[in-house]
Specification:
- 39% of the residues lie in helices and 20% in strands.
- The chain is α+β, with helices and mostly antiparallel strands and 275 residues long.
- The protein folds into two domains: 103 residues, no CATH class; 139 residues, Sandwich (Immunoglobulin-like).
- The strands form two sheets. It has a five-stranded mixed β-sheet with strand order 3-2-1-5-8, with no helix packed on it.
- 17% of the residues are buried.
- The structure holds copper (II) ion.
């Protein structure tokens, strides 16, 4: 058998290695996607807005996924097909108007479509809350969450940071304000099923972030500001509130409990909370 010339042998080894790499990448990509979906995928959605956000997320993932695969297939085909055989010269030209317009306009159209879809959902999420929404305040601190319900009169009393006392007055309610009397301060967040809720988010010290993964809700809590968000829980149950902003050594324990329940159960619970 005639010996294979060196360049041809190298090419064959190169192609074998390329095939191996492509196969490994495909196995690794598909495998890790499946494992991630089973283990670390997003929690089942439990809010009205969350459904739209998930749809947007999946659309973006599919579109960018297709582009990613296509580009790498084209790259692999070119490496394979046009590998240097030790003969000839590479072609060179510039100024190809059609090509340049194509690779500019198509990605621009795709990006503008995705961004517009995102803007629509963003506008929904940040639209004014329905008038019948209940109101609750959430305050982050190093390291935990505190909630305040306005009580019967529906008014939040004045807060005075100088009055904050861990034991007696963690929220810093000002007793001089009559509206403070009916305010109810709690350690857990209870919400009513299918009832929109407006959350006034504040911080006592540094920047925290109010994050309830199951509701697809995430909003920074900024000291000196009250930031409002609203959403509507759609499933009864217990959920987790996390801080999504690295806020200090105890960041990891900033875990709050959220319970979504019927209006009756909520009223009973609220009545049991001390003022
Ligand atoms: Cu925090």
């Amino acid at each position: 058998m005639a010996e294979i010339p060196a360049p041809a042998r190298e090419r064959r080894v190169g192609r074998l290695l390329a095939t191996l790499i492509v196969v490994l990448i495909v196995i690794g990509g598909v495998g890790s996607f499946l494992i991630a979906r089973g283990r670390w995928w997003m929690l089942p959605v439990a809010s009205v807005h969350g459904v739209e956000i998930d749809r947007l997320f999946n659309t973006t993932l599919v579109v960018t996924g297709i582009v990613f695969v296509l580009i790498h297939v084209v790259l692999a085909v070119f490496v394979w097909r046009y590998a240097d055989r030790g003969t000839g010269r590479a072609a060179y030209w510039h100024d190809d108007r059609t090509l340049e317009l194509t690779y500019t306009l198509i990605p621009a159209a795709v990006m503008i479509t995705l961004v517009s879809m995102g803007a629509v959902v963003w506008a929904q999420v940040h639209s004014p809350p329905p008038p019948d929404a209940m109101v609750v305040e959430a305050r982050g601190e190093q390291f935990g969450w505190l909630f305040r319900y306005p009580g019967k009169d529906g008014v939040f009393g004045r807060i005075d940071p100088a009055r904050i006392s861990v034991k007696d007055n963690p929220m810093g309610l000002d007793p001089a304000d009559p509206a403070s009397k009916s305010n109810i301060v709690t350690r857990d967040l209870h919400l009513v099923l299918a009832r929109p809720v407006r959350v006034r988010i504040r911080s006592k010290d540094v920047i925290h972030s109010f994050y309830i993964p199951a509701f697809r809700v995430k909003q920074d809590a900024v000291p000196g500001m009250t930031v409002e968000i609203w959403f509507t829980p759609t499933r009864e149950g217990d959920y987790e509130l996390a801080c999504a902003q690295l806020c200090g050594v105890g960041h990891y324990i900033m875990r709050g409990k959220v319970k979504v329940e019927s209006q009756d159960a909520f009223d009973t619970w609220l009545a049991q909370q001390s003022h």
